[in-house]
Amino acid sequence: MKKGREVTLPDRSVTDEKVICMHCGGNGYMKSTPNCYHTCLDCLGRGLRSA
Ligand SMILES: [Zn+2]
Fold first, then answer.
1. 7 CB contacts (<8 Å, ≥6 apart)?
2. pTM to 2 decimals?
């Protein structure tokens, strides 16, 4: 008897895992003075970084 061999390929789902930017705490910007904000360069203003 021949047994069918099933080849299970790893699930290649694109899991683009994101982590909160530690630099700005997920805000996407940094507060330099009470009136001045500037975009966080670590995450480019998104507040998230790719892991
Ligand atoms: Zn950031």
1. none
2. 0.57
